[in-house]
Each structure stands twice: as C-alpha cells, then as structure tokens.
C-alpha cells in the first residue's frame, strides 16, 4: 500500500488533515468562545502496534468520539480528548463542576456535552473534507466511548487489518495558545485501504496503477 | 521475573517466573495456553477470527484466531508441553461501539470469541476461565507461576481468573 505513495501523496493527505481539523478547530473556538489553534498535521505510516501505543500508550484512558464514514471513500475517524481536557470543555459547556471523566463519573450532562462536542467537531472535519474533495461521504451517527486508547483505536484497524498490517494515519493536534500549547485533543483519520486512490483521483493527483 | 509484552497481532511463549501481558484489548481477544505443572505458557493477541478472511497472501499468523492458536500450540509442544496438560483462559472480544449504522466488522468482538472457542475445542483444550464480551476494554496479565490471569478494566475494576 505504502510503496505506491510518495512524499507528494503524503503531503496531499496532510492537506486533508489541515482542512478538516482547521474547520474542527474553528467550530471548537466558537463553541468555547476562545481561540483554539491546530498544529501541522502528521501523516504516519504505522504498524498496528505503533498505532495502539501512540500518544500515552494502549492503556491510557481517552474520551473518544468514533465515526464511520461510508460512501465514495470509506474511512474511520476518531476525535480523542484526554480526560482532564474533556472535563474542562464539558464544564465550560454545561456550567457543571461536579463529576469528572478522569474519575470515571462524569454524569449524564457532561457525557451528552462530550457527545455534542464530538458530533460538532467530527462533523465539521468531515464536511470540510467532503467539500474539498467533492466526494460523497456519509458519516454514521457519532458514538462516544471512554476507555483505553488501544481498545478503542483497534476498532478502527479491523477494516484495514484484513488487507495489510500497516495503516496510514492523518493526525492533527489541537492546542490552546493561552494554556502553553497544551494538547486539547486530536483527530485521527484512517482511510480504508481502497480509499486513497479515490481521494487522490478526486483531487486530480496522479497515482501509479499497479 | 520480567513482564513479557505481547503486542497487538503478536504471540509469545515463556516460563515461570515470568509474566505475559497484553494491553488495551477491545474487540481483540487475548488467549493464554498454559500448563500449571510445567509452569509454561503462551499468549496471543488476535484481531480477527479466521485467516481465510485475509485478502492477501502474506499472512501475519498472529493476527487470526485459528493461526495464532496453532502457532502458540506448536511452540508449546515443541518446548515439551504435553497436549493433555494444556489448558486455556481467554479475555476480550468486547464491542466498543454499539452503532447500528456501523458495518458488520464492528461486531467482530463476539465473532472473535466464537472463533477462539471453536479452535480450542477442536484441539481438545479445556477453557478454564474467560472474561469476554461486554463493552469495556481490558488489559490482561498472566502469572505463569500461579496460573492466574488478572483482567483490568477502566470502568469495572480488576478481577482475577484462576
């Protein structure tokens, strides 16, 4: 899969991360009424063990919105928040101080706020992606899970794992410029193996046929 | 004593006094084959039920229930374990997301568990204990000396299978 992709292709995928997460960051900024920035997206070609050990490791607790994208270019998307960040955002949104994702007792209001946050961010990422590529991309209803990173992200690898042991990940980190560039959350986009050609084709980027 | 880490799509065998550990099992299943007398064990972290699902030739044997169990089984037999003494414990196979709109692949957890059990029973290996299904991720660690499998979850605490 990766042999066919040159640096130029990876740059195109980076641009997809840029556009998608850029819209996500804007949505988050207006939701919280403060500036949220994004880092330059990283495109990685990684083995499954590297993927599950990304960031804080397979056992790290994360608050995750999962979304499956069908249509022209099937893919899996995750919006991932560290628990203390999810606590901060959902307190801002609801005005409720009690309960915490970190302590695993967020309460229903904070859970639905986190759900709403994930819906908005993942939705703006995907609609930007769809506008940019002019592809028909249909998102599933986003779902929230609070669990170990490895357990969650491996769900996104199943589709890929039938074909290969490597995955291309487009990762974009959101940061809060006022809080010393602390990581606010990040988007992971995992296109299905067959989706790259469709995306490149839609953008007029040549791909070597095999 | 050292803790031997088994990654996703990976399998290892070891002796007492070591421990075998795999982290962040979601829909994946962690399989332990062991002999409590010889104090020897093998662990696999599988992702998919059957190697026939593979759409390409170059198989990663540790990724599928059937081929991973076969691999661990053969390794243990080669190292001197008797087939009659071999026992099994399994954990994992959760459904992390419930979405009805998600495709069939999302129900892979229960299918993995089913495939593992089928493979164990076809080899006549008794399943001594299991902690499978549900919607929680799991981290497991097998103490080869005591033949105990500790299962840790984020929301529901820890338990020990023996």
From TrEMBL, chain A:
Coiled coil: none annotated. InterPro entries: CheC, CheC-like_sf, CheZ_family_phosphatases. It comes from the Bacteria. Keywords: Chemotaxis, Hydrolase. GO terms for biological process: chemotaxis. The lineage of its organism: Bacteria, Bacillati, Bacillota, Bacilli, Bacillales. It holds the Pfam family CheC. Residues 8-43, 112-144 form the CheC-like protein domain. One of its GO terms (molecular function) is hydrolase activity. This is Chemotaxis protein CheC. PANTHER family: PROTEIN PHOSPHATASE CHEZ.
Automatic annotation (TrEMBL), chain B:
GO terms for biological process: chemotaxis. Gene3D superfamilies: 3.30.1330.200. Its EC number is 3.5.1.44. It is an enzyme of class 3 (hydrolase). It catalyses: L-glutaminyl-[protein] + H2O = L-glutamyl-[protein] + NH4(+). GO terms for molecular function: protein-glutamine glutaminase activity. The lineage of its organism: Bacteria, Bacillati, Bacillota, Bacilli, Bacillales. This is Probable chemoreceptor glutamine deamidase CheD. Coiled coil: none annotated. CDD domains: CheD. Pfam families: CheD. Belongs to the CheD family.
